[in-house]
Amino acid sequence: MSTQSSRFLRFGGAIALILVSLAYLAYTGVQQSKSYYVTIKELRGMGNDAYTKRLRVAGNVQPGSIKRVGIKVEFLLVENDQTLPVVYTGSEAPPDTFKDNSQALADGSFGRDGVFHAKQLQAKCASKYAPQQPGITTAPTKGTT
Which of 77, 113, 127, 135 is disulfide-compatible with 59, CB 3.0–4.6 A? Predict the structure, then answer.
């Protein structure tokens, strides 16, 4: 085997190793960031699959269920006649719109203890996005005409 073909094989092997490594990193990154949106009812019917996947669950925050303990927030999500206990332990405080009766979307995993362990939390206040009532006018904000 000549010196030139030996260099070509080593160079080709290095390129192949780099490409395989990048493909592996891309695949595992996609798998880790992928989350499945499920309803509370679907979550209850998933069986053992519910414990192994990253999930997103939405519902309304049950009034009076929010309990803050340091950076941890516990609450109940309600959807139709189904409730789901949620524990949020994210790195950021819950959004300002997170309060009783707000719509919330929890992203995390379902534990064998029956509690949804959320790492991310999104919320919107239903009254803030409700259509304007007839006959009610809003005052223009400063700087607008």
Answer: 77
